[in-house]
Please model this.
Amino acid sequence: MTNTNVSIATIITCHNRKEKTLTCLTKLMNQNVINDIELNVYLVDDGSTDGTGDAVKQNFPKVNVLRGDGTLYWNGGMRFAFFEALKKDYDYYLWLNDDTFLHSDAIKLLLKTSNVKQQEGKDVIVTGTIIDIDTEKVNYGGRNIKSKFQPLKFIQLESNTEPQQCDTFNGNVVLIPRNVKKEIGNISSEYSKQHSGDLDYGLRAKYAGINTWVAPGVIGKCSSNSIDGTIFDKSLSLKERRKKMRTPQGVPPAKEWMVFTRRHAGFLWPIYWVRTMVRVLFPWTYLIIKKPQ
Model:
């Protein structure tokens, strides 16, 4: 397989993780196919106060640094970067989290999987399996719907030596070809903070008849999200945990969660609506029964 003349727009958003962001970009620029592709990076610095944006421009002057005001979070930042990248017609659009460090053959594996599956028919989305930096256990990548009666429960797929199909994905590393971009468009503007935008995108593609495949093996590392200081941190009082429910790292806003449930829970969506009302009206109950996923 040759990747000559393939153009890729890499889409990243960041906030106050300067060292991780720089490491992420270093790993990206050191890919073993870098000389065979046209790689353009669109990075949103969402109001960082640690000098992330300036450090990126100093170390990677060709990166397109876009400035946010600190209120974009993952969904808004990625949507902003994607919007800017969509102004040009690239062959592929690569989502990449700034705390995800790619192995040197990651893009090669993503492109190879995409090429193989495209030969079987329609264009496909390709994601990759990510492992935790410390435990080396799989923490992000392709996900499958657990069952017809649990449509909003998603099972994390383990790595495999062959490509495997999935229902949706985490947004850590996702390769989207031009034709899929034209059909599905950007991340939905109905999600404003940290939640649901990536899972929603994968499911919308699935409904449109676009398959998502997980590239073989493991393509990178990323630290798992810690529960310290979150609503799941039982060392905090219930009062403190309740306050954290309304933060971007807490629970999805009720209106946004309703959009997600009505769009993806099928005939069971009223049950999820009741669960949403429990969260809003009885937050103490929610905190006691809710477990981290």
Q: What stands out?
A: The chain has a mean pLDDT of 89. The two ends are 38 Å apart (CA to CA). The chain is about 35% helix and 25% strand.
